[in-house]
Known about the structure:
Distance between the termini: 28 Å
Radius of gyration: 20 Å
Largest sheet: 7 strands, parallel
Shape: elongated
Oligomer: single chain
Amino acid sequence: MQIFYTPNIDSNPELPEEEAKHAIRVLRLTEGEQILLADGKANFYEATITQAHPKHCMVEILAKQEQSRLWQPHIHLAIAPTKNMDRMEWLIEKAAEIGIDEISFLQCRYSERKELKLPRLEKIAVSAMKQSKKATLPVLNPLISFKEFIKKELRGKRLIAHCEEREKTLLKYAFEPKEDVLILIGPEGDFSPEEINTAFTNGYHPISLGESRLRTETAALAALQTIHVCNM
């Protein structure tokens, strides 16, 4: 059954305009047909179309079902966006498919990207959520400076992946199963020595993702998958 993203369905029994257009004009759904809705907050809704209009598609809720959590820990990825946005869009898509709770975007000393179009990334995350049959949409936080982010009181075991030749713990040994995790991934030029030291001062632990030197988006996805595998 086709899934549609309806973040405010509890208070408004209507598809958002973009979803309505897709349902009525592209899929040619009509009144009386059943569809599946996801609110991005772990809930699915079975619904029937009551008014098939490409701008105002009204529905009647038949049943609500909470989707069981598909992964145990809260996973938060904080990453410096790549200069090439195609690579960052790819990461958002794959991370949403695999399963992640929150993604923050960091402005670091060696960052090559100074701005971010969050609505575009949110659309990609929504599409990936629906494609992978999830009802939970990851939170995408706006670009923030490394200095501001590192001082935040955030949940989870705090980890930082960097490329300097220092003592590190292999990621799979750096946290306990079902433990919430926050992991920092730097820009293409890596974190600066000052940023690494600041992270240590604020309770972050250095981790390794293996012997290979990975691209930013590859490192992030490898870290995410490792966390999932260690919690199976």
